[in-house]
Write a structure and sequence with these properties.
CATH architecture of the largest domain: Roll
CATH superfamily of the largest domain: Urease, subunit C, domain 1
Distance between the termini: 35 Å
Structural class: alpha/beta
Helix content: 10-25%
Number of domains: 2
CATH class of the largest domain: Mainly Beta
Strand order of the largest sheet: 1-7-2-5-6
Largest sheet: 5 strands, mixed
Number of strands: 10
């Protein structure tokens, strides 16, 4: 069994993705003094390095993966039972183009259910800058969704996105 202490921020997306995939009934509370904030148990670990899956616990403290190894004696505030599931870091979508759809469907669950936690956008069209000339070809689509482009810069787009998307 492999053992490592990983502090890679990309792997921290594991917690976010895992909580989206596992219903609250799969989580148990431990009333002893916790060593970790979250412990993911019984899952098949695929670490993204091309190796076969392996069995291990994933311990999370704060916003970091604290350990991936046999932690059967560990305690945590929250335990997620991943039995029969794969535990992996979040996936990067290279051609995401969700900058528009996030303003229509602010949860983006279809991405999260696929394990996508990072997305590269703007490779075809850019969300900003916007003006009357760039909005004109989009008018039929904007009218269909009763959607207004009320930003002109990236800063204003991100401000609107922050107000619209649920944390």
């Amino acid at each position: 069994m492999q053992s490592s202490n990983l502090n890679c921020p990309v792997l921290v997306t594991l917690l976010f993705a895992a909580t989206a995939f596992f219903p609250p009934t799969a989580c148990a509370q431990i009333h002893e003094q916790p060593q970790y904030d979250t412990l993911i148990v019984n899952g098949h670990i695929i670490d993204g390095a091309g190796n076969p899956w392996y069995a291990a616990y994933v311990a999370i403290s704060g916003d970091r993966i604290a350990a991936i190894r046999d932690l059967h004696d560990a305690h945590a505030k929250r335990v997620i039972d991943a039995k029969g599931r794969i535990v992996a870091p979040g996936f990067i979508e290279m051609l995401g183009q969700s900058e528009w759809s996030l303003l229509v469907d602010n949860l983006s669950l279809s991405k999260l259910f696929q394990g996508i936690t990072t997305e590269i956008t703007g490779e075809d069209n850019s969300i900003a800058p916007q003006n009357a000339k760039t909005r004109a070809p989009m008018k039929p689509l904007l009218d269909y969704y009763k959607f207004a482009v009320d930003w002109t810069t990236f800063d204003r787009f991100f401000r609107r996105l922050e107000k619209h998307v649920r944390p």
